[in-house]
Specification:
Number of strands: 17
Strand content: 15-25%
Radius of gyration: 21 Å
CATH topology of the largest domain: Alpha-Beta Plaits
Distance between the termini: 39 Å
Oligomer: single chain
Order of helices and strands: HEHHEEEEEEHEEHEHEEEEHEEEH
Structural class: alpha+beta
Shape: elongated
Largest sheet: 9 strands, mixed
CATH architecture of the largest domain: 2-Layer Sandwich
Length: about 300
């Protein structure tokens, strides 16, 4: 599974590649859906190729063919790109939210306009969490990076109320079951303890929905701040609240284990401090944290 997806990614990185590909794969690469969902949409009559209704997924398409999904033209798949983004608290990681809460994609669009393509998140952070979110323009890359089989560790700094007991952290390292849900072992260590609060470092390879908060609550600790500081080899580094910075193509290929290509890194002029936020729209105003999470 991982091997085949890596092969697909390598082909996408080769900008000279124009080989035909399966229709469902093309749709998935555009970030619309998974391959399985694409196959369902095709059989439901939602897809046209060059104006002709297509009802079978067993077809290949070329880059010069026009594909329509629900009447909308499928965008041309660009070379996969990746960004590091410091997600602020108070924003959801979703293009659509049933509660109509502010989301990171509308915020980035308001602040950067068409300087950024349509982005897809690699995983999620909940509303009250902050820190590193990886964003990409490619659905295949997003799904590949989310796979537990990649073995990439996600690291967090967590502030909780109360006095943390060593036996609780040791228990987390063995894996626990909470309300019938079995959680895999996580690495947890006490970083700093004060009279009323403690900072805990937590590392895990596969995160369930709100996993850290549920694990802390199981031991009676209330989380007051949760910051993701790294995802695999990618870190916050010098990013501050709301900053975004693109990962250079050569670095991305290297971290994915792909062979070097003719891509010129100069086409990505990354500011080492990240792209600073412009003044947000009034609907996106919020109080910013001023403390560096790596020194919190």
């Amino acid at each position: 599974m991982v091997s085949s997806q890596k092969t697909d990614l390598a082909a996408l990185f080769d900008e000279t590649s124009s080989a035909p590909e399966r229709l469902a794969k093309r749709m998935a690469g555009a970030g619309l859906c998974s391959r399985r969902q694409a196959e369902t949409w095709i059989t439901e009559g939602r897809v046209k190729i060059d104006g002709q209704l297509q009802l079978t997924p067993a077809i290949t398409v070329t880059s010069d063919q026009k594909i329509e999904v629900d009447g909308n033209i499928l965008p041309v798949i660009e070379r996969p790109r990746l960004w590091r983004y410091y997600k602020p608290r108070g924003l959801v990681v979703s293009h659509r939210d049933e509660k109509d809460r502010d989301n990171i994609f509308d915020t980035l669009s308001a602040e950067h306009g068409d300087r950024l393509p349509r982005l897809i998140s690699v995983g999620r952070l909940d509303l009250d969490s902050e820190g590193l979110i990886l964003l990409t323009n490619n659905g295949l890359l997003a799904r590949y990076l989310e796979l537990p089989a990649t073995g990439w560790t996600r690291k967090y700094r967590v502030r909780v109320h109360g006095q943390v007991k060593a036996e609780h952290l040791n228990e987390l390292g063995r894996g626990i079951t909470v309300e019938g849900v079995k959680y895999r072992p996580v690495i947890a260590s006490l970083d700093r303890q004060t009279n009323s609060n403690a900072w805990i470092n937590i590392a895990l390879k596969e995160g369930k929905n709100r996993e850290i908060r549920k694990l802390m609550q199981h031991f009676g600790y209330q989380v007051s701040r949760l910051i993701r500081i790294s995802f695999g080899p990618f870190t916050l580094n010098k990013l501050e609240d709301g900053d975004i910075a693109e990962v250079r193509p050569a670095i991305l290929r290297d971290q994915l284990g792909l062979q070097p290509s003719h891509l010129d890194d100069n086409q990505t002029k990354e500011n080492q401090h990240g792209r600073k936020r412009q003044k947000p729209h009034a609907s996106h105003q919020r109080q910013k944290t001023r403390r560096n999470p790596n020194r919190a």
